[in-house]
Design goal:
The structure is a single chain. It contains eleven helices and 14 strands. It is α+β, with helices and mostly antiparallel strands. It has two domains: 3-111 and 299-324, Aminopeptidase, CATH 3.40.630.30; 125-295, Aminopeptidase, CATH 3.40.630.30. The strands form two sheets. Strands 1, 2, 3, 4, 5, 6 and 14 form a seven-stranded mixed sheet that branches. A seven-stranded mixed sheet has the order 8-9-10-11-12-7-13. Strand 3 (56-68) and strand 4 (71-76) form a beta hairpin. Helix 2 (32-42) runs antiparallel to helix 7 (192-200). The longest helix is centred in the middle third of the chain and has 18 residues, at 167-184. It starts with 5 loop residues before the first strand and ends with a helix. 37% of the residues are buried.
Length: 326
């Protein structure tokens, strides 16, 4: 590969970045929208490099600067995004050269890329994808029988699902997410300001955030926060009030999201992560929606300095970092 064919650019506007990301089927965590929110709310700075070949974008790399034991780490969440894999080795070689020049000691990524034939003894991440191109009738038939019954029952009882940006609804949903995370002992790291920034900053970007909520007799029972990126929808956060658990709130919300996503000509609904062993309840809930299990690469750590690599191998730092960024 003649390296001169690849042109690296840094000064791309957020709207253009997100337009490219949508066109090459990237993940919203690689978006300028997400990066801008992280910077303005959480003071996490990022760098964005776009790679062009013959004037056409083929790769986007958005990385956040982190620190571990005083060392600079380049964290690439759900990226890099590459349209063609033929240039991957050349792009990574140049990426690592640039990172070393800027004083980075490590690079960590977790690609949003399906692995068709997983190999044994490799770390992987699993999720469920719903193929929206199958259409409403087919997807309805693919729901588990009990799930179809629960959706019908919730509708008959008067449960209403709607998209909202009302501040009161957003705050209620956020507090519900915090409560559920505490009760079930899992991490919910998003702040209310981060959530609202993602939801309200929808202008000048093709990547949109949406909050779906369910109400019963005027009371908010649960909700789901999704991000629309290109032809894919991503389930980011969700919660249901225990007091309304018998109303099948989660099931009706997810079906309404599926119907809405089909109307938007989306092709994939990514339920964003499953773990049958560590989180069997969530796995069983997502499984009833009829998606297929998809395998992604796990966290991958690249040591950019030989000395750091040697020390890390002795101390098994890679295992600690993999848990931190999982």
């Amino acid at each position: 590969m003649n390296q001169s064919l690849l042109e690296w650019k840094e000064n791309i506007s957020p709207s253009e970045w997100d337009r490219i990301l949508s066109s090459i089927k990237g993940h919203p965590l690689q978006s300028a929208k997400w990066g801008n929110a992280r910077k303005s709310i959480d003071s996490i700075c990022d760098t964005r490099w776009a790679v062009f070949k013959l004037g056409q974008p083929i790769c986007l790399i958005r990385f956040e600067e982190r620190r571990f034991l005083g060392c600079k780490i380049a964290w690439i969440p759900k990226g890099p995004t590459m349209e063609f894999l033929e240039e991957e080795s050349e792009i990574k070689k140049e990426l690592f050269r640039r990172l070393r020049k800027q004083g980075f000691f490590m690079c960590i990524d977790n690609l949003w890329r399906e692995i068709k034939e997983p190999k044994k003894y490799q770390p992987y991440h699993y999720t469920l994808w719903i193929d929206l191109s199958l259409g409403k009738e087919k997807l309805w038939s693919m729901l588990q029988k009990q799930c179809r019954y629960d959706v019908r029952r919730a509708k008959k009882m008067g449960t209403i699902v709607e998209r909202t940006e009302h501040p009161k609804d957003v705050t209620h949903f956020y507090e519900l997410c915090k409560t559920v995370s505490q009760n079930k002992n899992f991490r919910f790291n998003a702040s209310l300001t981060f959530l609202t920034d993602l939801l309200y900053e929808n202008q000048d970007t093709p990547i949109k955030s949406h909050l779906f909520i369910a109400k019963y007799e005027g009371k908010l029972c649960g909700g789901a926060f999704v991000i629309h990126c290109g032809q894919s929808i991503h389930y980011m956060w969700g919660a249901v009030d225990r007091a309304f658990s018998k109303l099948s709130i989660g099931e009706i919300i997810q079906w309404e999201i599926i119907e809405w996503a089909i109307s938007q000509q989306c092709r994939v609904y990514d339920l964003e992560g499953i773990d049958p062993k560590k989180n069997p309840g969530t796995y069983q809930f997502k499984k009833k929606l009829g998606g297929k299990m998809v395998t992604f690469p796990g966290i991958k750590i690249y040591f950019l300095n030989r000395m750091i690599h040697a020390i890390a191998s002795i101390l098994r730092i890679d295992h600690l970092l993999a848990r931190l960024y999982a």
